Fold this protein.
Amino acid sequence: PFYLDLDKVRSDITDGKDGTPLDLKITVVDATGCAPIKDAAIDVWHCDAGGVYSGFGQAGTGGPGGGQSATDDQTFLRGTQVTDTNGLGQFQTIYPGWYRGRAVHIHMKVHVGGSVVHTGQLFFDDGLTDQVYGSAPYSSRGTPDVRNSADDIYRSAGAASAVLAMTPSGNGYVGDITVGVRRT
């Protein structure tokens, strides 16, 4: 519901937003044979540490809503990458914040040959989220009101198969996932 088609491809999508650094690595493969797909376009978007999305009006809680907002013309934490010969697209971002009624997540779309072949969401281990949210800027908001197991989209996305594999890196993390898509 919060997709915004960007006109430019960019890997650093932070736009100066404060948060725990996240090097997001998404590998796109053909679901039938697991061969990497070169030149697939990956779009990602997520909320900032305060639970606010760029590009759309926000309700008072920072979650989805209508109306005008100061973020309507901004594109923070949104971007597109084209996969390399190994099917890899990478983004420099931050660990997402949360908003009422949803587990912590990142939205994504995959385009192959100009067609959308996958729309989904990526999730985070609840224990790691608790750890990250113990520090600023996340700690001022408290804990998320929905855990993965209580999120309908998490369950329909394949539950644990939609959770990023996270590895500590410097003062942040590297998050990896392989996404199998059908080209048609």
Notes: The beta strands are 21-30, 41-45, 78-82, 88-94, 105-112, 115-123, 165-169, 172-181. Residues 96 and 124 are 9 Å apart (CA to CA).
